[in-house]
From TrEMBL:
Organism: Pseudomonas turukhanskensis
Domain CheW-like residues, every copy: 77-224
Keyword Cytoplasm in annotation: yes
InterPro entries: CheW, CheW-like_dom_sf, CheW-lke_dom
Name under which the protein is recorded: Chemotaxis protein CheW
Keyword Zinc-finger belongs to the record: no
Superkingdom classification of source: Bacteria
Compartments, record wording: Cytoplasm
Keywords: Cytoplasm
Assigned GO CC terms: cytosol
GO process terms (BP): chemotaxis; signal transduction
Amino acid sequence: MTEVSLSLHGGELTVDDCWNRIGVRGDKSCPKLIEHVHCRNCEVYAAAATRLLDRYSLSQEHVALYDQDKDTEAQVTRSMIVFRLGDEWLALATRTLVEVSPLAPIHSLPHQRSRALLGVANVRGALVPCVSLTELLGLDAAAGKPSGRIVPRLLILAAQGGNVVAPVDEVLGIQAFPEQALDAASASQAGSAASGKFTRGVLQWQQRSVRLLDEDLLLHAVMRSLT
């Protein structure tokens, strides 16, 4: 029997990933498929997702979110992933980014714990919590989207306790911003449009206004949405 083992404070949380063996991603021999048609409708799949979210809850209680980099004075540039949600361009430090992935189906869960928790996504056979950055940041979900061949993506972020995914409307790529420009944007935040949630400042870049997100505050909010 193939199982998924998840580390939890030195212990192991073992989940039988039956959907990869006998479910729709396996040989489809599971007798429950007759009743449920797809694994995402099965109580076993839902129970595995619940145990996954419980792991995040325990991690939130016992472990600090992130260690700050103490040697910032030597930095000349800072690497950030630039992406779009609706009409807003945002930038997040790449130290929080695991990878950019194609969109995957997001399966909602019964009795959602928060409005920001969209459900779970199956990323290469592993259940990963999916959160709405639009909800966490208080953005307008109905904002217009630019025309053209734009491909939405999933950002896989490294939160304490495990990865989470967040759908975004567009990813521009990883950019190296001068530290001096970032510091100046942060210093001018007061009294500007940069007063939104989890925002360090606004940087004018390539004819765009880019909101610089505070990764520690944002990831802390992401963790709260899972517990």
